[in-house]
């Protein structure tokens, strides 16, 4: 049996891994870290050169010297292929394989960097009338609109089946909005998908373990959850 520990910085993308492990029915433990005040506390920074969450510790092969893996996308592929028998992924022979691979990588490779560019434009004081700010805003709308179009005609990102692409993307429209407010009223494909995905028992169980204080209704509402306020 796998001996897995997920290191999760609370209110963050680390929740993806417990969500995946719950879906796959793979046992794990979770070690929680609190933001200090916004970023990782020293204990998490010491664990890995990047000091970011999630981290997966796998003591299955060598309990004395467990493997430590960072990057949520890498962890998702590792778990699915090593312990999940490929479940929640689509094989190359599947007609939606290209869609699966595309959306699996879209959240970390495109959506998040696009949203953070706008976040920094605002943080560094660019006025909303500034063309450079407007360019970042236009690109966010393009990325979110693109995802919404996909979800207007499909139940899940890769088509009819729930896959790891949905696991990777969910937090971008739930917990991530605690840092990057985004109204989803104009994106009914995304809000309907959020309801479907977050109603899954695996998501509910994962969030109870990762962030029991989060208000799940607020996380999926079109208006979005309240801004994150660090504990003093
Ligand atoms: N691309 C990485 C990003 C990891 C990351 O930046 N995680 C955030 C949590 S949402 C973090 O740990 N931030 C704390 C810090 O950078 O100090 C992944 O997908 O795992």
Automatic annotation (TrEMBL):
It holds the Pfam family GST_N_2. Residues 1-87 form the GST N-terminal domain. Residues 93-216 form the GST C-terminal domain. InterPro entries: Glutathione-S-Trfase_C-like (IPR010987), Glutathione-S-Trfase_C_sf (IPR036282), Glutathione_S-Trfase (IPR040079), Glutathione_S-Trfase_N (IPR004045), GST_C (IPR004046), Thioredoxin-like_sf (IPR036249). Belongs to the GST superfamily. This is Glutathione S-transferase. It comes from Paraphaeosphaeria minitans.
């Amino acid at each position: 049996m796998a001996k897995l520990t997920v290191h999760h910085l609370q209110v963050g993308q680390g929740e993806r891994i417990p969500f995946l492990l719950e879906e796959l029915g793979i046992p794990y433990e979770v070690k929680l870290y609190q933001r200090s005040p916004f970023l990782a506390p020293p204990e998490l920074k010491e664990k890995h050169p990047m000091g970011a969450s999630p981290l997966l510790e796998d003591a299955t092969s060598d309990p004395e010297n467990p493997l430590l893996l960072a990057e949520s996308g890498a962890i998702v592929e590792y778990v699915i292929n090593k312990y999940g028998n490929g479940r929640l992924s689509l094989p190359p022979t599947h007609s939606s394989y290209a869609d699966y691979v595309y959306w699996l990588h879209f959240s970390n490779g495109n959506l998040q960097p696009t949203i953070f560019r706008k976040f920094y434009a605002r943080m560094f004081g660019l006025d909303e009338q500034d063309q450079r700010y407007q360019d970042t805003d236009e690109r966010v709308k393009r990325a979110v609109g693109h995802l919404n179009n996909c979800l207007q005609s499909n139940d899940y990102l890769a088509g009819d089946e729930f896959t790891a692409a949905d696991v990777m993307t969910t937090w971008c429209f739930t917990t991530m909005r605690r840092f990057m407010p985004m109204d989803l009223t104009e994106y009914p494909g995304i809000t309907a998908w959020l309801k479907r995905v977050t109603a899954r028992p695996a998501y509910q169980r994962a969030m109870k373990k990762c962030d029991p204080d989060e208000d799940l209704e607020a996380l999926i509402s079109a208006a979005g959850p309240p801004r994150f306020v660090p504990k003093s």
